[in-house]
Model the fold of this input.
Amino acid sequence: MNNKIKRRIWAFIIASILTAFIALTTYGIGKLLTKQPTLTPLQAAAQNYGTIKLDCNYSETSHILAVNQTTTYINNATQTLYEIRFHLYGNAYQADATYPAVAPSEIDRAYPNGFDTGYAKVSTPHILLGGYDNTVITVPLESGLKIGESIDIDLQYTIKLANIKHRLGYTDNTVNLGNFYAIPVVYDNGWQIYPYSYNGDPFYNEPYNYDVTITAPDGYTIATSGTEIGKNHFQGYLLRDFAIVMSRDFKTLKREVGDTMVTYYYLNDDIPDISLYTACNALAYFSNTFIDYPYPTLNIVQTDFLEGGMEYGALVFLALDVTDQLQYQTVIVHEIAHQWWYGLVGNNQIRTAWIDEGLAEYCTAVFFETHPQYGKTLASIATQNKNSIKMFESIMDEYGVNYTRQMYKSSSDYRMPTEYTINTYARGMLLFYAISEMVGYENLNVALAKFATANCYSFGTINGLTHTLEDNLGYDLVKFINNYLAGRQDTVL
Ligand SMILES: [Zn+2]
Done:
């Protein structure tokens, strides 16, 4: 081989190496440039859902919350939409509301400093504020929103909080911002609009992703449904709704359960470590039994609240005035059970309140059955519920007041809060208990896990629930459940 040929071969080898090097480098840089941030499974599941962005500013002196909201709304209906509707509940707190937030019998207990009024005002032009007590916003669209298309809708509004121990209100201890923003109405063969109701939780929500900032006076500790990603900036994915509670007096205690940080915000609790322990036990038990809790945080928040507790996405209210310790632990478990029944698996809480309340009550009882350190059993809780029903019916009979055992009812159609509570909580729990007596609670747990998997981030219905249970457990459960819901609770399975 002469030198000329050698030089050519070397030149060829060097050129090839250079070309390969340049190609590889370019490919590497290209790969780096196009590399997408890794999504968590929750973020990946959230891609097909809308987003609600809230920019909130709270004045401690006027008790007014000013909100700038941008909603990315996706048309998941089966037809083009020419308007989008939202529920905005601030006006349910007006003095003359037709569908008030508080039952007349509860007014003294609800307003610590005498009756007070709250309201909502929307400043966005070209929208309508109407519906029951002006709690419904209608946004007309310039052109139709076709199936699968999305649109960004801006809304500006202010909410004047009432001085009330309620979902939305302030007291000397806390500021509760529950159901405070404009939430899109579910479109399901038409807009599913319901009035506010003091019976139960008058809500029917789809999951959304949230990006929330809140400006509040210095010194407030802020608990929210989201994860804090910057100062007072919170994000959450696939939450059934987004709540905020603020206080100058919160103490906190936290513990990790799996990938979730559980934080207890409390004002007055002699055994906060036990309350956090109960919350962590409940989270772990329901995660292992049904489906994994997917959120990075769970905040349990003690606050001024009229009822025992209230469920929100990744956050629960616990009423400050529940002083009995075992009762308080029971409220913690019940509200955390709602993270599965109401939260991950939604339902129409107005028309089928017994699904989420009955399941939350029943699963709380199963939690106690499997955690003997609390001294309650599934059977003892069932007996308590049977006794509550007997007592309610005997009092009604004594005073000659009509009542119903019918559970196919909207919560607002019950004539009094006790009748609602008996029919959704007590009879609801006993429905699932009757099935567990027949098949064993472990087998019912497995069937409920299937129901949860099939309906996660969506809605469970009476049909879906009864057929899932029947398919997985055998027995003529559809007939039994239909009879039970129709008020024939002595039907034998
Ligand atoms: Zn409940």
Summary: Residues 334, 338, 357, 360 surround zinc ion (CB under 6 Å).
